[in-house]
Write a structure and sequence with these properties.
Blueprint (H helix, E strand, L loop, with lengths): L7 E4 L7 E4 H7 L3 H7 L23 E3 L2 E5 L2 E5 L20 H4 L3 H12 L6 E5 L7 H12 L6 E6 L1 H4 L6 H8 L6 E6 L8 H12 L3 E7 L8 H13 L3 E6 L14 H14 L7 E5 L6 E3 L11 E3 L5 E3 L2
Parallel strand pairs: 5-6, 6-7, 7-8, 8-9, 9-10, 10-11
Antiparallel strand pairs: 1-2, 3-4, 4-5, 11-12, 13-14
Helix pairs in contact: 1-2, 5-7
Length: 324
């Protein structure tokens, strides 16, 4: 199955990430510079330093069977598709997204994943991501049904940006599949970066997902020129909590080749996050983390309420890592 072609424009991009921008986002970008910067390519993508890599989290190394990444003992990541309704220019998987044929999975591939999971008894959680799994609705529904019936799996997570990039992609078929899973929780993590993304169609998609029974979380990334502002993030996280979405993670931008121009100075991020923690309620304030290079964990960053080393940290493998 390939990504749907409706409402999208395909072009040859600068750098190594294809350009695909939904009609919904093209319209929004006319009035929102923050949305435009996220999805429209720039010459800055050519500026890559030696501190960046194409796979900073070593997902290729930890790929055990096609489409399945196993880095942490209790959970696996499934890259169900290499397609997205629109491609974020800061994508940490820019090495693979957009290559539809290479990333194409079949029901046989899902069977191979289940065989792998059942041979590793500690795995109790699956994270279905991509690309965006909502771009392959039939395969997503099939995959969720399989894990619904696998007793070993106790938690199903689905990561998507479809409610933001193309709200029409939140289809009745997907909603029905989520609603049918009553024997285990379905956590749906939606990627948000800026309050401008919370349009009426997106909010309608959010309510539909809530009604279907999904537990909604959000993930965000600090992005230079997009959301590196206290007021912007306070507005975003406050509104998400009001809509029934629990802000989960706020990431430091990964040092991925082609996206370095989005990286915010570390001290500025800590200052903003410290201020946010003072004013936001616990349910509206995400955990600020660095996804450590080499796949060694999401490390929570201490705030300015504490004195700490601001140039390096220790990952979950007790390795000292310099902040880039």
């Amino acid at each position: 199955m390939s990504a749907p072609k409706n409402n999208k424009d395909e072009d040859k991009p600068p750098g190594n990430l294809v350009v695909s921008i939904s009609a919904h986002l093209r319209g929004l970008a006319k009035t929102s510079p923050a949305v435009r910067k996220q999805f429209f390519p720039s010459e800055e993508e050519f500026n890559c330093s030696s501190s960046s890599t194409i796979d900073p989290l070593l997902e290729e190394k930890y790929t055990k069977v096609k489409g399945l990444v196993h880095k942490y003992s209790s959970r696996v990541l499934i890259t169900l598709s290499a397609s997205c309704a629109s491609y974020c220019r800061f994508c940490t998987r820019r090495r693979m997204v957009g290559d539809i044929e290479k990333g194409r999975l079949t029901k046989n591939d899902i069977a191979g994943m289940i065989e792998y999971i059942t041979s590793h008894s500690l795995i109790n959680e699956v994270i279905i991501s991509g690309g965006d799994p909502f771009t392959v609705p039939e395969l997503l529904v099939h995959t969720m049904k399989k894990f619904k019936n696998l007793n070993q799996v106790k938690i199903i997570r689905v990561h998507t940006r479809m409610p933001v990039s193309n709200p029409k992609g939140v289809t009745p078929k997907i909603l029905k599949a989520i609603k049918a899973i009553t024997n285990k929780p379905v956590y749906l993590s939606i990627h948000f970066e800026h309050p401008d993304e919370l349009t009426k169609p997106t909010i309608e998609a959010i309510f539909a997902l809530r009604k279907a029974g999904a537990i909604l979380l959000s993930q965000s990334v600090f992005l230079k020129g997009v959301n590196d502002s206290f007021e912007t993030l306070r507005s975003l996280f406050t509104r998400l909590a009001e809509l029934g979405i629990r802000p989960y993670y706020l990431y430091r931008c990964d040092p991925v080749s082609g996206a370095e121009h989005f990286v915010v100075p570390f001290g500025k991020e800590v200052k903003i996050m410290t201020k946010l923690r003072r004013v936001l309620s616990g349910i509206a304030c995400p955990t600020y983390v660095i996804d450590a290079p080499n796949g060694s964990g999401k490390i929570p960053v201490p705030l300015n309420n504490w004195h700490f080393e601001s140039d390096q940290y220790e990952d979950f493998n007790s390795k000292r890592v310099k902040v880039v």
